[in-house]
Here is the input.
Amino acid sequence: MTLNREKPKVIVVGTGGFGKNHVRVLAELGGLGGVCDIDVEKASTYGRLYNVPYYSSVSEIPENVYDGAVVSTPTFTHKEVALQLILKNFKYLLIEKPFTRDLREAFEIINQARRERVKLMVGFIERFNPAVSMVKNYVAEGAVGEIIMASATRVRRWPERITDLGVLLDTAIHDIDLMRHVFSEDPLKVYAKVGRSMHRIHEDYATLILTFKAEKMAIIQANWLTPFKIRSLEIIGSEGVIEADLVSQQVTLSSKDDRITPFSEWSEPLRHELKHFLECIVNGSNPSPGEEDAVKALAIVESSFKSSETGNVVNIVTQPF
Here is the structure.
């Protein structure tokens, strides 16, 4: 069967949690080709709702029918699901963050994908937040002079749940990627403290200090304890400050003489992310953020755990690409 690259069709594997949003937005974009979920009732509900084929197992998904897939299953299943899809001749995979549980699993997927010429994307959705785009443009233009430091806060109350992830991999990893993205470079060292307060299984709060070249710093705070939601990013420069609310998408630029908050209409980051994924399929181009971004973020997470365990600053090292 010859695939239609002008109107690519993507299957969503895992329709619970955030997966249902992938289903909805892909349908809005005209790119939803099918759904798969181990919960047969859930799969059939979405299949009937959007008039697309549905499956209860990856093994049921036919080969050479879909242009790409979104993997939005629990993280501990990402490696298995991705490898199965690669064997089924899928050439584009968008794997939800944090990509995998650890670097070992990440490289298993990447190595197999390279052998089969599969293009990978990781679901760091905040890169597609219009507020982040505005912040990055301000930084690139030198609107606040030389960057001195940045800080990010990502907190909310989260009930105890059965999960394979703690706050570092589930939450803080967004801002780890954002710091790399905004600074356009990789941190060299990390000092981290993580702990568990209200949750029994995994850590539920974390503070990271990342050190970049020229002694630039980034501070990341994340928790599942605060009884309201904050997702913010602040860039402090020699000539001013950029403050971004990633929920409302409002960005304020302050300098010695002025303080402005340009109007920008709110738009859904997931829509921008999936539109990019579909465009890459049509154009045969590499999606971004890709496999290298996934690995570098995971390396920072693993270094953060090591720092917290030892109480020391840890050098961040990733395998070369």
